[in-house]
Amino acid sequence: MPTVLIIDDNAAVAMALDVLFSLHEIDTMSAASPAAGLALLQRAAFDLVIQDMNFAADTTSGAEGKALFAEIRRRHPDLPVILLTAWTHLDAAVDLVKSGAADYLPKPWNDDRLVASVRNLLELGQANRALQQRAQRERRQRRELEDGFDLRGLVWQDPATERVLNLACQVARADVAVLISGPNGAGKERIAEIIQANSQVAGGPFVVLNCGALPSELIEAELFGADAGAYTGATKAREGKFEAADGGTLFLDEIGNLPLAGQMKLLRVLETGRFERLGSNRERQVKVRVISATNADLPAMIRAGSFREDLFYRLNVIELRVPPLAARPGDILPLARSFLGEGKALDACAQAALLAHAWPGNVRELKNVMARAGLLARGDTIAAADLGLPAAAPPGTLPGAPAGVESEPDRDDIAQALARAGGVVAQAAAELGLSRQALYRRMERLGIARP
Q1: What are the E-state strand segments in 242-306?
Q2: Which fold does the domain 326-446 belong to in CATH?
Q3: What is the pLDDT of residues 73-94, one digit of tens each?
Q4: pTM of the model
Q5: What is the number of other CB atoms lying within 10 angstroms of the CB of residue 216?
Q6: pLDDT tens for residues 126-140?
Q7: Which class would CATH give 3-127?
């Protein structure tokens, strides 16, 4: 049950508020002076404070209440405070609300309004605590991930990326084949590197073959090697990627481009660890951990007869799905800053433009955009125009809102943006199309605690 602290020198006020709130299942404790109220706050936890503005006899200046409020804010910056006084002064009310007061009500108060205000603030407090607990949990999980595994310098902040990393690190030590799926440019090779770095063969080679970058007639030679004379131009024997990766990891990118003949030979290697070079009858034995990646719909290719079903299940013991960059917006600004390098910064409009863009080319596109912006910007601050992206939504327009329609972010919008940004107010503000100070003002008005 929530508990409200009432600081008022009038015992009748404290009793009336206690009776009122008891009808709404809200506990109260009372203190008759600022010193007694501060002492209670030191000893016990409260969800809200209702304080008087005048305590000494025959005083109406509100100076004592201002001092008490300032001290409560200093000691308990996230605790909502409602000011209650028989002597209302508009200027004082405005000043204190600007300083963070949650509400300012005259005596005698309106019961319905007071209860509604208290209930709203208690609900906001509960939501803020849940948000803070979630943020703390995410920070703890991130530290455990960063401290416990080699993440190869990966820059990330979005929970969707964290889920992929957690699974990647979980399966890294197991000697099983992993299939990494996701669109081009999303970072599949980096995930493969992280798996290798945390595997039992971390000290072995990490060999990459892009099956989509070679003519189909050369892929087998690249995979398995070739003896001299095996094909036109093969003037000397050469080892393939499997031999080069012996004792380590072979990363096969764009595995859907492997021709059927190569698929059959790959399946045999995965099952036995044995293969022959092209043009050779001598079997070779290797111990290789295979990680493959694709942006293709392999089940559809199986139905079409262009990909072997048995190979698919051999490669797909564990599947890691890397979301497109647009589906992990929390990564966009940290990645952009890492690509931009030291000495340059993004202004608020540039941040909003980055967050509003759809990123069809994913991380690869973002890297190119930031490289271009770093070269073309006249100063050390990158503006939206330097990015060369389609016009972003105007400030104050929420992501996903129809063009030309401005939306004022509500409490849920702000809470979700803060959660996606890991509590980084500047990043959340950019996502919402606001300046940092504008977001702070809205947070204070809505009773959302600063991270």
Answers
A1: 249-253, 274-276, 283-285, 289-294
A2: Helicase, Ruva Protein; domain 3 (1.10.8)
A3: 999 988 999 988 776 565 666 6
A4: 0.64
A5: 13
A6: 877 777 777 788 788
A7: alpha beta
